[in-house]
Every structure is written in structure tokens, then in C-alpha cells.
Amino acid sequence: MSDVDDPRTVPEADAAALSMAVRQLFRRLRAEAEPGAFNLSEVSTLARLDLHGPATTASLARAEAMTPQSMGAILVSLERKGLIERRPHPTDRRQTLLALTAAGRCERQRRSAAKRDWLVAAMGRLDEAERRALIAAIPLIARLGENEGPADSREAPPRAEHTGG
Q1: HEC states along the chain?
Q2: 152 vs 103: which has the higher pLDDT
Q3: Beta strands 84-88 and 96-100: pairing type?
Q4: Where do the domains of the chain lie?
Q5: What is the CA radius of gyration of the chain?
Q6: Which residue, among 60, 108, 100, 59, has the nearest Cα to 82 in the 3D structure?
Q7: Residue 126 phi/psi, 5° resolution?
Q8: pLDDT, tens digit (0-9, with 9 covering 90-100), for 59-73
């Protein structure tokens, strides 16, 4: 069996190169969606509310691996921008749900469209063989990002607040 066939022998340099490439692509996509408008925690919170629906501050904080106090500050910022709103919890009057507003949903769609448009154009600059190779790698890259493996079985560590753009 060659080293390439043995998953225990993935060269660290290859893993580092993939990590760098993913980070570079992530930064570029983020820049295309209006750099500096939102920090990573705000973008992630908007995405979570859009994908999973209304949630409590505590459940958002758990999902984002941060304290409820830190999540509260993010929610105040998004609420001031008119992107989320507070709603009464349907079964527990002590709790409040946070949900996207129409403006929040529009902002998510605008940001997604900007990133998608850039990516379509960038992929269009690749030759046919490069496009096919990239498209063939999509399921593998997605599988790497799925929730599986030792890191997901541990308690999520507190996440440092990101305040940059």
C-alpha cells in the first residue's frame, strides 16, 4: 500500500496547503460580500437563524460555542441594524426567540448572491479540466467539513470574539 492509500500518512504539508487554500477562498468570498459590514460571529448568527429558524440566545450561544453574554452583544448589534427581531416563545413565556426580519433575510440573500456571482465568474476562468477536477472534489471537501470524528465528540471550547471586518 502506498502512502497516498494509507489515511494515517497524510503529509502535514498537504493538510497545511489545503487548510491555507480553504482559508484563502473563505476570505475572498467574504470580501466579495462587502468587507467590514459584519464580523464573523454576526454572519454566522444570521446564517444560523436563516437556516434553522428562530432560536433563544442560549441556544444560539451553545451552537456558536460562546457565552450567552457574548451572543447577547451580537444580537443587540443585529437588532439595532434591523436584521433580527425578538418574538415571544410559543410555550415558555420566560423566554424570547430571535428571528430574522425581512431585512435580515434580504441581507443574507444579497451576501449569498455576491459570493455566488464571484465564484461563478472565478470558476468560469478555469479551463475545462480544472473545472471538472474542482467539481469532482466538492463532495470530498464537504465530507471533510461534516460533523464527524474526534473533534466533534469533545466539548466545544469557548470561541474568541472576532471584531474585525
Answers
A1: CCHHHCHHHCCHHHHHHHHHHHHHHHHHHHHHCCCCCCCHHHHHHHHHHHHHCCECHHHHHHHCCCCHHHHHHHHHHHHHCCCEEEEECCCCCCCEEEEECHHHHHHHHHHHHHHHHHHHHHHHCCCHHHHHHHHHHHHHHHHHHCCCCHHHHCCCCCCCCCCCC
A2: 103
A3: antiparallel
A4: 32-146
A5: 19
A6: 100
A7: -80, 155
A8: 999 999 999 999 999
Q: Quote the cell numbers at residue 162.
A: 472576532
* 32-146 maps to CATH 3.40.50.2300: no
How far out from the chain centre does Cα 130 lie?
26
Closest to 50 measured CA to CA, from 89, 98, 118 = 98
